[in-house]
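step=predict obj=Lactase n=604
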Amino acid sequence: MDSFEWLNGYTVGFGLYHVDFTDPNRPRTPKFSAHFYFQVMKDNGFPTNDDERMLYGEFPQGFLWSTATASYQIEGGWRADGKGLSIWDKFAHTPLRIFENDNGDIACDSYNKIDEDIAILKQLRVNHYRFSISWTRILPDGTKNYINEAGFSYYDRLVNALLAANIQPHVTLYHWDLPLALQNVGGWENDTIVERFRDYADIIFSRLGDRVKLWVTINEPYNVAMVGHGYGVAAPGISFRPGTLPYIVGHNLIKAHAEAWHLYNDKYRAKQNGKVSITINSDWSEPRNPYKQEDIDAARRVIQFYIGWFAHPIFNGDYSEMMKTIIRERSLAAGLTQSRLPEFTPEEIKRIKGTYDYFGFNHYTTVLAFPVEYGNLQHYDGDRGAGTTADRAWLNSGSGWLKITPFGLRRILNFIKEEYGNPMIIITENGISERGPIDLKDSHRSYYYEKYINQMLKANLLDGVDVRGYTTWSLMDNLEWATGFAERFGHFYVNRSDPKVPRVAKESVSFYSTIINCNGFPDPASGPHDCMKQEPEETVNDSSVNFLGLKLSAEEAETGLNATFALLIIAVTGAICLSIGCFLTKRRKKETKKVDNVELERKF
């Protein structure tokens, strides 16, 4: 227990139990370390727990294996062929908004590299590819007043090329790049955006729906509402506004999604037979101290204010009672006449509920929650009343917020099952980043995918969670929003210093493609499985070079250059040595001649 620590007195505590020295009774309270040490003694060591133990088995037949990108992050061509400006074009060209002032003007140049992108998708062996459409490439001012056929041509060719490669397109209508013209009249804060989004969806469904069977209406509405309109670190970069703004934005995002879903359901479903949903993102949240009820309650609030904000109205009808009660009570306590959280009318609740064909879900990490009192702050953070941190034992990534916590995926999948009636789930993003020097041996990424995918397998086979698909983020290194190109999530490295912007495979390509080929994890106890023996796909890295008249890979050319340089050094060194040898020989001859002359003079 904590005790008198010599010169430090009672200021330093070494104990497993906290002792309250201000109380005459000196009560002892167990710290988390006491519970931990008890478990170590109980287990007599560190046995492998259920979270860490691998499960061997296969996913259901027809499982969707995919990888993902987003238009602004990879396409480039920011002013090509009549494309209009988006909020990210403006945001990225505003000084100090993006790390190192990076922007998506060129990005990965995917607008001009359909063939190259198809080639690396084939190398990855995915059967689906999730990408997004740039709203302003189709409708430059965001409205149906003018349709840009050149922009449509790009997506038309991309979809056809995917199908020709036996890869199904999974298309996102909105991945954050709102037309700037619409932002200038209020953007997602203006409820006319609902009709504008419906018009945009109508055009896309009508032109691509005969070939596209999986749709996402809006990607990560939480980030649109909070990161873009609450914290202001993403486009449109709005912060320090009244605490109602993120909730208004979220309200309109939900209604826009619902209208697009009903449009498809009423006008296109019978003929096109596709599936439409929204993609919701969320961390999993654990109590920082699992033995404190305050932390348990904080973890619940984090989940309900994250995934529940958008999932509850769509899957269960209306916002959760927790959100409605907390925000209303805090609003009234601050002297407001009504809740800062907008209300749905009974007609809107009915229209929104059930607007899904699957649960699109993005997940990366887990947090530890604890209560925080924000006083009278009328803001999302004050409403949630919780702070989050990470366990220092969790492995890091290239992103400060992303820790490797595979167990969280299984737990939040079970939460979705229990909270929302076990819907069909497609994981539409999951991945890990790196920073610093380029290293194609991304073993941390392979480790991440192995552990997370295995947790998904446990959720499916052991817990009965209806998981139908999995998508890695991302196909290639790209512009990671406000962090620029510094954080890299890709299976493929993109060499942006080369004008051809070649894609180069990292080791995780082979690892993920093997999982896909096996449709899971074959039991090694059964011996080598045929799915582990893959015939190599043709790689297209566009990085061959001419060297002394020969066409070689970059690695071969580098080896040849090093060998040539080494031979040149040897040759130069030999020439220098030979010259010195000749000089010394001549000098000795001259000295010998002088000695002979002196001897002759002495004789005479």
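step=describe
The first helix runs from residue 32 to 43.
step=end
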